[in-house]
Design brief:
This protein is an alpha/beta fold. The protein has one domain: Nucleotidyltransferase, domain 5, CATH 3.30.420.10. Helices cover about 40% and strands about 20% of the residues. A six-stranded mixed β-sheet has the order 5-4-1-2-3-6. The chain is globular. The C terminus is likely disordered.
Length: about 190
């Protein structure tokens, strides 16, 4: 069975990207975590529920006793202030990988940036431009920085797993509202 990958850039606006092994499609999107006025446990539970839903709908789950698919996350780069809570997001994602029997891996922002641009200190704009270019996403399509980070993380993990061909952008994204449960999704098909 081919390996599926769910890449996550956790945060209040969480970006995600998947490689669906059944459809051989890359999809990406983002969703907002409920506001900080909610209890922290509720926010972590929401994150796990959304990622569980994404993994299920993109064929990243299986009944195998050993992990086949991968859940990858970007680690927080700043552990002062907001970065501390981001570690809670990472911990919730690690627990979810155990629950769903997904192999877990993480990469630092400099690792992702270096893979994407050759510069471990690349700017958000450079990462966004790289994600648009490598997946051939037109400038008219809305793409958040968090979604671009997740797409670059997905590309890095796919590359590490031996998948060298980067798929082109294919379909229209669905629109996203600004509510806390909003998400958007775009599809990119693999040409193999």
């Amino acid at each position: 069975m081919e390996q599926g990958i769910l890449a996550v850039d956790p945060g209040n606006d969480t970006g995600w990207a998947t490689y669906d092994p059944e459809d051989q499609v890359v999809r990406s999107g983002h969703f907002k975590i409920p506001p900080s006025s909610c209890l922290p446990g509720k926010r972590l539970y929401f994150l796990q529920c959304k990622l569980r839903e994404i993994a299920a709908s993109h064929h990243i789950l299986c009944d195998a006793s050993e992990p086949i698919h991968v859940l990858a996350t970007e680690l927080p780069h700043n552990l002062r202030g907001r970065g501390t809570f981001l570690l809670h997001y990472v911990a919730a994602i690690q627990l979810l990988s155990e629950e769903l029997k997904l192999a877990y891996c993480h990469r630092s922002p400099p690792q992702i940036k270096k893979w994407a641009t050759g510069n471990g200190n690349a700017t958000k704009r450079e990462i966004l431009n790289f994600a648009r270019a490598i997946y051939n996403i037109p400038r008219t399509k809305i793409l958040t920085h968090d979604e671009a980070d997740a797409l670059c993380l997905l590309g890095l993990v796919m590359n590490e797993k031996g998948k060298r061909k980067i798929p082109p952008y294919d379909e229209e994204p669905t629109s996203s509202s600004s509510s806390s449960s909003s998400s958007s999704c775009r599809e990119i098909h693999l040409d193999e």
